[in-house]
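debug: dumping io for the single-chain case to check the tokenizer round-trip. Nothing else runs in this session.
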Amino acid sequence: MSENAERVGAALQARIGAEPIVGDWFEVSQERIDAFADATMDHQFIHVDPEQAAATPFGGTIAHGFLTLSLLVHLSESIKEDLPDMAGLLMGVNYGLNKVRFINPVPSGARIRATAATIDVAVKGSSVDQTRAMVIEIEGQDKPALVAEWIGRLVFA
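debug: decoded output
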């Protein structure tokens, strides 16, 4: 077991139960939705056709659920945590997700932000797996767009 991994794992473990940390607002524009539709070849009208989507219960176009999920990477960059000393860190990678739920659609032009709370930490040899409860909020709405348990792996020398 790596001393660096043990030290960081202990520091992250101490965060379990702390209040979620809130990130910055980010606008999900129709241009971004269209670009995601092109990248994924998912051109369902509720995402890309404002006229047709206006006739749905959504009242207009909405972001793809997987676009909202993909934005976790960007949204998490604005979550300012006091990080422990990362001496010996070689890389961080996405390890996976335990749960993902798309609770509420994100209308085109809406602003969203993420919150993160550490819920589990596991030291595995020279790696640390940090599981965070992530919530993507929609400005002005009570129900979040998405909830997920996201596992990040930190790999140490």
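debug: round-trip ok. The chain is about 25% helix and 35% strand.
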